[in-house]
Write a structure and sequence with these properties.
- The chain has 397 residues and is an alpha+beta fold.
- Helix content is 36%, strand content 25%.
- Strands 3-5-6-2-1-8 form a 6-stranded mixed sheet, with helices on one face. A 4-stranded antiparallel sheet has the order 4-7-10-9, with no helix packed on it.
- The longest helix has 31 residues.
- The radius of gyration is 37 Å and the shape is rod-shaped.
- It starts with a helix and ends with a helix.
Length: 397
């Protein structure tokens, strides 16, 4: 008989039990419970295991700690079994007493233990005192529970769009499956008392019973997904904006004298931002957070851009008497965005007209080379950053 059915039965019989005489109740306790030996294992056939029907109640997800790899929930278990040492005939007690309840320490109860707990190994109810409902036919319904802290292996590689799957494994510690076997009730998972968590959303859940190391084990697993809006606004978006801002250094005219200062400012600003948000990113090495890798690569690209900005500025002010080799000449002359490239195209068209004089050579300056490098570095930087951002969102989604 499931725990829910028993509770319904209690409600349906309230009109009968409310009218019971206290003398009948006292007589029942004297006859049935006065000499009851709670230490005796409550089954008729000692060669067959006692079947316990289980229902999992999840009240709330209290906390999830990525660093300690622990999850804390408030939950409970509804256990039902038949105690062969307890029974009575309701007709002998005014035909009114169909059930009663008393403190659980007065009867035999199974030592249900959270085996993957991180603090203590013991019955999950701890010091909490709960009442057990006992029916005239010997069926017992016992609710137990409390704050449960379990070990949960963490995967933060997709932070802040990550999901975590945590398991709670219950067994009757010290009593093997030859003595106790768990069964799922007709309603094995109950959320009627559940309160959502603002940081984690419950995306899926499962419950199963299996044999593990000689014990009948109940495993309740939940998958929780992080509420990512805050981290998207405060961490992901600034990271992307800093990455897209870096290459704009190459659009600033070298003559302004502010290019290197702007590049250094962006680099230092991003370094400070990385320091501030590092506290929000979970610290784990296996696997490492992909977003943190993206931020490190972005700051490396920013540092390279500073070096390139300095080098391009040095080329711009290089002595015009220094010979321009074939590589620099190609960058300053042949690239599609080069200023001299358009000049060559114009002169080529003019040479095709009769009577026009064609120039045999085009003068390439270091300023032309610097301009060609600026556009080249701008394009390459944006390609790298866009590929980096695209790869991140492909992985996390």
């Amino acid at each position: 008989m499931s725990a829910i059915f028993k509770i319904v039965l209690v409600i349906l019989t309230l009109d009968k039990t409310n009218g019971q005489d206290i003398s009948n109740v006292k007589q029942l306790y004297t006859d049935v419970f006065a000499n009851h030996q709670k230490e005796v294992f409550p089954k008729v056939d000692q060669n067959t295991p006692l079947k316990i029907s289980m229902t999992m109640y999840l009240m709330t997800i209290t906390k999830f700690d990525e660093v300690d790899e622990t999850i804390v929930i408030l939950g409970g278990l509804g256990c039902s079994w038949n105690d062969a040492g307890i029974s009575w005939d309701p007709t002998s007690y005014g035909n009114k007493i169909y059930y009663t309840f008393l403190p659980s320490e007065n009867i035999w109860t199974p030592p249900i233990t959270l085996i993957n707990a991180v603090d203590v190994l013991g019955p999950i109810q701890g010091d909490t005192k709960t009442n057990a409902y006992i029916f005239y036919d010997g069926n017992v319904t016992w609710p137990l529970g409390g704050v449960m802290t379990a070990k949960c292996t963490t995967d933060i590689s997709k932070f802040p769009y990550d999901s975590q799957t945590c398991k709670f494994q219950f067994l009757s510690w010290g009593i093997t499956e030859r003595e106790i076997v768990f069964n799922l009730s007709s309603d094995p998972i109950n959320f009627q008392f559940f309160t959502p968590n603002s940081n984690w959303n419950l995306s899926s859940y499962d419950i199963r019973i299996f044999s593990w190391n000689g014990y009948s084990t109940l495993e309740f697993s939940i998958t929780i997904k992080r509420a990512s809006l805050y981290y998207s606004v405060m961490v992901v978006c600034p990271t992307i904006l800093f990455g897209l801002l870096n290459p704009l250094v190459f659009l600033l005219p070298i003559e302004s004298g502010e290019r290197i200062g702007l590049a250094m400012t962006i680099l230092l600003s991003y370094a400070i931002f990385l320091t501030l948000v590092s506290a929000a990113i979970p610290a784990a090495s296996n696997p490492m957070c992909i977003l943190l890798i993206i931020m490190i690569v972005t700051i490396v690209i920013s540092g390279v851009i500073v070096v390139l900005a300095i080098y391009v500025s040095s080329l711009y002010y290089r002595d015009e008497k220094r010979k321009i080799n074939a590589v620099w000449r190609f960058i300053g002359l042949r690239l599609p965005w080069s200023k001299t490239h358009n000049k060559i195209t114009t002169e080529t068209v003019s040479c095709e007209k009769p009577g026009k004089h064609c120039s045999a050579d085009v003068n390439v300056t270091w300023q032309n080379v610097s301009h060609g490098l600026d556009v080249l570095f701008l394009i390459v930087s944006y390609i790298l950053i866009c590929v980096l951002i695209g790869v991140y969102f492909i992985i996390v989604r």
